[in-house]
Amino acid sequence: MSNKIEITKIHSIFHHNHRNYILFSTNHSQFDYLYFKHMKMNIRSLFFGNNFQINISNLIEKNDVDCIECELGTRILGGISFDQDIQIANNLAINECNQILSNLKNFLKNTNKIIDLF
Q1: pLDDT tens digits for the chain (118 residues)?
Q2: C-alpha dihedral over 4, 33, 75, 29, to 10 degrees?
Q3: Contact by Cβ (8 Å): 25, 11
Q4: Which of 76, 85, 86 is nearest to 46 (CA)?
């Protein structure tokens, strides 16, 4: 497998409850990745885990779901979150996270302004 992390597919770009989301896959992992950024608050995260595509498509259709990432629960295997002034990393290094997000920005040809590095 190549050491260079590349974005292989964008599965979905969507908005939900004041958050912009991007669901995508990479060449270096079997897992799905979910990036989100809150539109009104200084909150953003990159998570990875199992079966995000199926679960998220079901969650989007439910009107009573406030927080997509909260509902994913134990399907999240790791990631990095930034909430106001607190950053937490779990099972994902910041340099790997930033490489993924930089490549995501390039893959989207910088048309998506919601992506901020950690």
Answers
A1: 446 899 999 999 999 889 999 999 999 999 999 999 999 999 999 999 998 988 888 888 877 888 899 899 889 999 999 998 899 999 999 999 999 999 999 999 866 678 999 9
A2: -20
A3: yes
A4: 76
Helix (H, G, I), strand (E, B), or coil: what is residue 74?
Answer: helix
Task: Give the burial string for 51-72 (b: 16+ CB within 10 Å, else e).
Answer: ebeebbeebeeeeeeeebbeeb
Domain boundaries, the chain: 7-107
Instruction: For tokens 């990095």, name the residue.
Output: 80
**Which 3-state string (H, E, C) describes 27-61?**
CCCCCEEEEEEECCCCEEEEEEECCHHHHHHHHHC
What is the value of pTM for the model shown? 0.91
